[in-house]
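Notebook p. 47: complex prediction with NDP.
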Amino acid sequence: MPVTTRSSSSKQKSATSKPMRNGHDDSNELDDGRKHGQWGRAWEVDILSLVSVICLLTFCPLMVFYFYVSCNHYDCALSAPLLGILNGDVTLGQFWSQLPPITADGFKIVLSWVAFQVFLNYLPDLFHKCVPGYVGGIQPGAITPSGVQLLYRVNGLQAWFISNGLFLLNGLVFKWVSPTIVFDHWGEMLWVANILGYIVSVFVYIKAYHFPSGAKDCKFSGNFLYDFMMGIEFNPRIGKWFDFKLFFNGRPGIVAWTIINMSYAFYQYHTYGYVTNSMWIVNILQAMYVVDYFWNEAWYLNTIDIHHDHFGWMLGWGDCVWLPWMYTLQGFYLAYKPVDLPLPVAAAVLALGLAGYFIFRAVNAQKDYFRRTNGQGLIWGAKPKYLEATYYSSDGTERKSKLLLSGWWGVTRHMNYTGDLMGSAAYCLACGFEGDILPYFYIVFMFILLTHRCIRDEARCKAKYGKVWDEYMTKVPRRLIPGVF
Ligand code: NDP
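Predicted complex, structure tokens below:
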């Protein structure tokens, strides 16, 4: 049953002819304060955002190296290097000498990996022709604020399968290269991934000024640091099929995630003679998450990373460095410190991870089904309740949307994030309770990331849907935990 609330006139508004400031049209304000096409990232930078940007740009790269050194030289004790420096036991020079070296092998491995992923990116997708239920091949993306709808070559599942299949065959049968290659060169590769992340970020920044792929969807805040980090171009591309967001978001990082984990498992096997149950749990749960991502790659075209974020350092460097190094910390830790959980604990951790995955998948699938059936399909066995909303792209065209009030989307506003957090907690808990906080960093990070994402997303939805969004917030008052938060 629709609960109809119109937040503005349903007549199509015409595009304005007033001049633009930084490409930003001020004249198209609607009566409820919304502006045409102004529901992406911010146009203006407040001081708090700027301070956050400076902190992230400065500390994130340092953190990744710091975590690596903590495990490699300090028995995974996260506070040890810092305490050592503070109490004078470790000089900055000594700490510097503990950083991994820059080597030719590091360059060879990372660059051949990225080149291989570029090659796979251009292969036509065969999986959608032979795997029942899989949506791949050429697929449309979401409509951008300027009203453009791009086509994408969705072939991530194929790329994942080929890459991971080859790595597994190599490790178990052919032994072309050592299956512990990732673990063995992890530090050296970190340097190269950083260089790549910065080159990509600087390139898209310059490209946005000189040869943007979609000039109408560029956003210039006028602040160099903010634009560099949050991105100017919405969908930078080279040619027709090399899409920076789709490529860097999924490949090389997410395809590599499971390979990195396998390399840690091989390392355990080679070093200790067996693979611990905790390593199996981490490998299985994270592989489910990764395969889910590629199985639903066409659907991910509509999620925040692809649909709303602009492409800058946050995605460029983040996908090259932060994701592969910080999302795989549990396996890294277990390679140094093998943990065998008592069977009931292992079963409970696995159950938590599976329950989290089930909720995460069910919530995402429910919204997808609801939007695809335009509110006509049954949700939890009944006709869904929803709000009718309108929004405007920057050319002034009125478009319609629906906000689901039934099922998971009536329990809290972001139950998919709750499921994601349960899964993340399970990865960390699999590392046991040896007194180390390093493997638990992930759940802290995910909690900050996803609560910040809730806030960002809700501000965007408010700018897009106006009073209808307020009504949704009143009807579904909690963000993540029913009855609590
Ligand atoms: P969502 O899939 O939750 O999408 C949010 C969007 O859904 C909103 O912007 C709005 O978009 C629409 N929407 C909001 N409420 C409703 C409603 N009641 N009914 C219908 N549509 C609604 O968020 P994300 O894109 O952030 O996340 C996708 C998945 O990816 C999540 O499961 C998340 O956990 C996961 N994720 C994982 C990350 C990781 O690093 N591991 C990082 C980020 C996400 P619209 O404009 O279409 O109305």
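Notes: The first strand starts at residue 2 and ends at 4. The CA atoms of residues 39 and 460 lie 5 Å apart.
Next step: compare against the earlier run before touching the bench.
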